[in-house]
Amino acid sequence: MKKRTAATAAILACTMMFSGCSDSILTSGTDSGTTSVENIWTAKDDDIVAWATSDSLSDEEKEYYQVKFKDFYPEYSFTIANYGLDETNSAYASYAQSYRKNIIDMLTNEKLILRKAKELGLDQLTEEEMAEVEKAYTKNLSDWYASFEKKAKTALGISTDDTSGTEDSANDEKILEKEKELFNEYIAGFGLTEDTFLMWQTNTAIQKKVNDYLLKDITVSDSEVDDYITKLKAEAKQAYEKSASSYATDSEYKKVWIPEDARYIKYIAVGIASSDYAEINAARNESGADDAEIDKKRDEKLAEIKEKADAALKKATADGADFDAVVKEYSSAYSESTAGEQILVLNSKGLISDALYDAVFALEKPGDISGLIPTDSGYYIVKYVSDAKVTDSDLSDYRKTVRQELLTSRQSEKTNAILEEWRSAVNYEYDYEKLNITKEEETSSDASGSSADSKAENETSSAASSGTATSE
User: Fold this and answer.
1) Which parts of this chain are annotated as the region Disordered (predicted)?
2) Could you read off the pLDDT of 282-324 as tens digits, one per residue?
């Protein structure tokens, strides 16, 4: 069951602007270079591109389930343009195929779900539910407008350098109105309006009601969570007995079981130039390598960074030193995303260099800091943070994660099964020629097409999770 509103909002990230709107959606947005301005489409706006074929359906039902080209193309062209893909470029052909299939599947699924919503009496939103829809819609509109702020200021001759937020209220009003104008020009290029976006968001809320109804009785018991964790612990132990590397490669294992004598560390890496390390590493791996000569080369490179490494060690071992702060200042391995992270080191040789392994397990107690550890990539300074073990608190947190993952998986399986059942009852057929889609049986062995499907789904998912537009 695909949700569309946030994804549609987020894919406003493209910087291209469209103006004008003709009677045919195929000639909309002709200044972009990413929509179908070339004659690669045979369909007309009112052509039916998806329809129900089941004999059990009434004529009224069959008419309801129809999807016309003018329903499909605005969403498709809007999506592909905002990912910056030119569908007339052969390099993007597989991606374009995937987006077309995703959009038509989404539209037909929506038809099915909204029909079921009516049958279940879930097609009307309460005042409270509609208020939530309108609140989210208004917030998203505000974000969409703001994404055109720079263009609006430029169009009005207002400086874009002033970020103080001190513009007078008159200017603020002019900027907002211009943002709205630019936004509406942009979506009009696809045959869309703000009302279309509100309809999408409303439909999404209705689909959520149906989904919640279908999944209301799905639960995960404590015993199921216990069984999952017990099995994972057994797997972790078996993997470790087989080889420490087998254990280390699965990040889930350490959440339920950690071998004895493992340690958590933090480290500072003062690295030599990456090109020098690559050269040394390549020499090590050559047949008949002269380790003495390579060590000499390495020591020359280590000498070049020795002063910096000494300074880092001095700061790290000073009374009251903030080790994390020294990592940030000196470590070539530092990144904001991993700042403060503790590294699990298993008491098993072969997973890290012998020099690092020996230094880590030579430290006697938590809080101890090593001296400079010379390696082929540079100097390391290691801090023994704590003994590694899975605490009751860790297990409690992981139990919550497992419960949610099991629940989500079970819900997804049921949703997919029910949706497939509904699709089978309706028996949708597509006009692949007018949709410019190669039939699935003809692309099933096409690895690039499969990759493109994955990319399209991942990007749509990513966009849906962000829910905010930026056109700058």
Assistant:
1) 439-472
2) 999 988 889 899 999 999 999 999 999 999 999 999 999 999 9
Structure tokens at 360: 């880590």
User: Rounded to the nearest 5 degrees, what angle is found at the Cα of 413, between the Cα atoms of 409 and 414?
Assistant: 120
What residues are paired with 374 via a beta bridge? 379
Q: Are residues 277 and 188 in the same domain?
A: no
Confidence class for position 85, pLDDT limits 50, 70, 90: confident
pLDDT, tens only, 162-203 = 555 555 677 889 999 999 999 999 999 999 999 999 999 999
- Any idea of the CA torsion for 134, 137, 138, 143, to the nearest 10 degrees? 170
Domain of residue 355 covers 258-389
Q: Looking at the structure, do residues 191 and 103 belong to the same domain, yes or no?
A: yes
List pLDDT tens digits, range 210-264.
Answer: 999 999 999 999 999 999 999 999 999 999 999 999 999 999 999 999 999 999 9
Same domain, 31 and 149: yes
The pLDDT value recorded for residue 166 is: 52
**Residue appearing with tokens 């038809």:** 111
- 124 within domain boundaries: yes
> How does DSSP classify residue 164?
S
If you write DSSP's letter for every residue of 297-324 in order, what string do you get? HHHHHHHHHHHHHHHHHHHHTSTT--HH
> Cα separation of 422 and 275, whole Å?
58
Q: Which of 15-29, 104-118, 178-192, 193-207 has the lowest mean pLDDT?
A: 15-29
The answer as to whether 407 is a domain residue is no
* pLDDT score recorded for residue 165: 52
- 98/100 Cα distance (integer angstroms): 5
Write down the pTM of the prediction: 0.70
Indicate if 276 and 329 belong to the same structural domain. Answer: yes
196 and 326 belong to one structural domain? no
CA distance 399 to 223: 11
- As a whole number of angstroms, the distance between CA 302 and CA 309 comes to 9
Assess whether 145 and 207 both reside in one domain: yes
Amino acid at 119: E
In a domain, 362, yes or no: yes
Whether 406 maps to a domain, the answer reads: no
Q: How many domains does the chain have?
A: 2
133 lies in the same domain as 190: yes
Q: How far apart, in whole angstroms, are the C-alpha atoms of residue 5 and residue 245?
A: 44
